[in-house]
Write a sequence for this structure.
């Protein structure tokens, strides 16, 4: 029997999701033994034309990581959707928009203006904003268009499953590949990482206070963190209570608080709203001036609560 | 046909008002009983406590076409549930800042402490908000 065909693709992403595949280490050999990788631009030399030549629905599973912000990424996502039976949004950027999604607080014009004209490091007179067409001696080149708004994958194409995380851990990737090979996938739309908050699997959960209340917020650089006590008990903002588990509290094991990359639980409509509500609730200060002082220690609240999920949020982007 | 033209000429802000059951909603009730006249633009949603107003409600209101959101709760120290209004205050402080990053002006999002007897404060708070938002113009949030 022919092996199932699998494709990997990256859109607006940092490459960390590709690294997560490599991090399967020797398990990657089991995967390669079980499937045929037919498209993987970061590692294998296949071109768009090769994918176009494949029959529709011939790819069993396409793992697509990264947000969508260029016309080229939309085109490739749509092409892979047509050629694949199952599409998996791989990682926080594909699921929620991720770090690139923070660009939705600006727009194309203001981003181009700063990066290609206003920034002090730009030395070209009058700047050199990117163009979608340029003439070179060999002919005219066409480059992808840059959008005003960064989108997550399911705002562009139909997505079957999601693997969360920045990046997804090798463990949940291996579990997903196993489920695919055994044909034991859950109903369409599922996030393949369970539906319990991170605290449930955190080693420090036993030292989490019964009532989560803090009189002050401390940045990680302000204190000597006790690695064996819940960060919240020490006044350090950890987003574990409002974030989906599945990563086995990797950051906490590295003595850093959770920043929420596994995203919202199934019951949460808007991650940022939830995180904001939680943050305001644990600050146990009723005097308005003092509450202001404590909350002002949260530098850039929008960036904290929507770090990975701005395009997926209810408002989606800055007003135009 | 004529009517439609007149309506278009004057922008009528759509304000979603979350009023707590014990204080501000009772005050709005009193304003009604007292036949006070004030702007009819606020669509009042009764909640048990201003602390019940999840930031998600506010985001949903703006996304669904509200031009402004007003939250009304008991005065500090008077909350029926002791501390719900303090939670509302802290959420408000953070959320107002986040909304500004999204381009939503602070005048479009307000928190007022209005006790059950302060019918007049309901009137002035709603009138002031409607006036301010009318000056700003429609928000008309576009998704995508």
């Amino acid at each position: 029997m022919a092996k199932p065909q699998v494709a990997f693709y990256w859109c607006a992403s940092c490459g960390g999701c590709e690294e997560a595949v490599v991090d399967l280490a020797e398990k990657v050999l089991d995967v390669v033994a079980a499937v045929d990788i037919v498209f993987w631009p970061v590692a294998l030399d296949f071109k768009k034309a090769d994918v176009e030549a494949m029959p529709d629905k011939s790819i069993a599973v396409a793992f697509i990581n990264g947000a969508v912000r260029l016309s080229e990424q939309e085109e490739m996502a749509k092409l892979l959707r047509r050629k694949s039976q199952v599409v998996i949004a791989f990682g926080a950027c594909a699921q929620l928009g991720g770090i690139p999604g923070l660009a939705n607080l600006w727009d194309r014009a203001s981003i181009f203006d700063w990066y290609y004209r206003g920034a002090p490091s730009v030395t070209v007179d009058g700047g050199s904003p990117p163009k979608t067409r340029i003439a070179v001696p060999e002919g005219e080149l066409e480059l992808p268009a840059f959008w005003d708004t960064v989108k997550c994958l399911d705002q562009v194409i139909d997505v079957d499953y999601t693997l969360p995380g920045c990046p997804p851990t090798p463990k949940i990737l291996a579990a997903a590949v196993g489920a695919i090979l055994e044909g034991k996938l859950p109903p369409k739309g599922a996030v393949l990482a369970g539906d319990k908050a991170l605290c449930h699997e955190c080693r420090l959960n036993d030292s989490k206070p019964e009532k989560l209340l803090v009189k002050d917020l401390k940045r990680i650089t302000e204190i000597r963190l006790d690695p064996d006590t819940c960060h919240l008990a020490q006044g350090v903002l950890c987003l574990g209570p409002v974030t989906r588990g599945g990563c086995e509290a990797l950051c906490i094991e590295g003595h850093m608080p959770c920043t929420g990359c596994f995203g919202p639980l199934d019951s949460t409509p808007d991650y940022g709203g939830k995180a904001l509500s939680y943050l305001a609730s644990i600050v146990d200060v009723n005097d308005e001036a003092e509450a202001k002082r404590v909350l002002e220690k949260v530098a850039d609240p929008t960036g904290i609560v929507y770090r990975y999920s701005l395009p997926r949020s209810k408002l989606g982007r800055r007003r135009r | 046909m004529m009517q439609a033209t007149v309506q278009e000429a004057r922008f009528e802000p759509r304000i979603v008002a979350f009023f707590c059951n014990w204080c501000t909603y009772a005050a709005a009730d009193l304003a009604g009983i007292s036949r006070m006249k004030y702007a009819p633009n606020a669509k009042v949603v009764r909640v048990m406590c201003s602390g019940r107003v999840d930031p998600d409600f506010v985001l949903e209101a703006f996304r669904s076409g509200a031009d402004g959101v007003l939250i009304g709760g008991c005065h500090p120290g008077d909350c029926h549930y002791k501390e719900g209004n303090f939670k509302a205050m802290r959420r408000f402080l953070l959320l107002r800042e986040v909304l500004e990053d999204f381009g939503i002006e602070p005048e479009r999002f307000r928190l007022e402490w209005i006790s059950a007897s302060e019918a007049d404060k309901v009137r002035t708070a709603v009138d002031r908000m409607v006036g301010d938002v009318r000056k700003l113009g429609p928000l008309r949030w576009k998704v995508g």
